[in-house]
Amino acid sequence: MAGERFRVMLRMEIKPGLEPEFERVWREVGDSVTSHPANLGQWLSRSIDEDGIYYIVSDWVDEPLFREFETSDRHLEHRTKLHPYRSGGSMTTMHVVAHLPAGTGAAR
């Protein structure tokens, strides 16, 4: 449904030994995503349990605006720069249905 925050989670399998280079390039090209007006931010996380596995989470204003970005030249260029590091992966999309902000006593 339009108007709901939309979240994308990518699971990326990175070729052995290329992890540091992948992280560097991801940081360098990330603004092609985060500078898009509909993007609300993105995060890169490395799995503790599986070698070479990364998760990229990005939040979007809504699904239609993400889908517009997904088919853009800007996204194709971004994917092209990261593709040499990948050996596989998957994408999961979801609508955020609730958010519980951290309390004032949360560790910082």
From TrEMBL:
Pfam families: ABM. Keywords: Monooxygenase, Oxidoreductase. Residues 6-94 form the ABM domain. The keyword Glycoprotein does not apply. The keyword Oxidoreductase applies. One of its GO terms (molecular function) is monooxygenase activity. InterPro entries: ABM_dom, Dimeric_a/b-barrel. This is Heme-degrading monooxygenase HmoA.
